[in-house]
Design a protein that fits this description.
This protein is an alpha+beta fold. Helix content is 24%, strand content 36%. The chain is built from three helices and ten strands, in the order E-H-E-H-E-E-H-E-E-E-E-E-E. The strands form three sheets. Strands 4-1-5-9-10 form a five-stranded antiparallel β-sheet. A three-stranded antiparallel β-sheet has the order 3-7-6. Strands 2-8 form a two-stranded antiparallel sheet. A hairpin with a 5-residue loop joins strand 6 and strand 7. The longest helix has 11 residues.
């Protein structure tokens, strides 16, 4: 599985349209930033600390087609980047995120099990 973190309102708008075009950062960079299971906590700590009203959305990597590319990013790791719109119908599930005591969005371990 791979994951997208989005603002709840942005994701709801995307579901109504049938696709997610990306956050402001995604649009600026020319692709939709995604994270693997092993990268997810680091992404939440680095980019989403203190951010309220977020949703975590899971996707099967193989369902996103050739527009999904693994490219070098933070710390030399390969991160999934989607060059195109993210079809909301491909989402496996979504979970609302709450902030822990340090202001980091909290995820349950069982969410990440296949």
């Amino acid at each position: 599985m791979i994951f997208k973190i989005a603002k709840v309102t942005d994701w709801r708008d995307a579901v109504a349209k049938g696709h997610y075009s990306g956050s402001l950062d995604d649009v600026r960079d020319g692709f939709i930033h995604l994270s693997s299971k092993s990268q997810l906590r680091g992404t939440l700590e680095k980019h989403f600390r203190g951010a309220p009203d977020l949703v975590l959305i899971a996707f099967q990597e193989g369902q996103l087609g050739p527009e999904l590319r693994w490219e070098t990013s933070r710390g030399g790791d390969l991160f999934p980047h989607l060059y195109g719109n993210l079809p909301t119908t491909k989402a496996i599930w979504e979970r609302a995120l709450t902030l822990d005591a340090d202001g980091i969005p909290f995820i349950e371990d069982e969410w990440l099990e296949c």
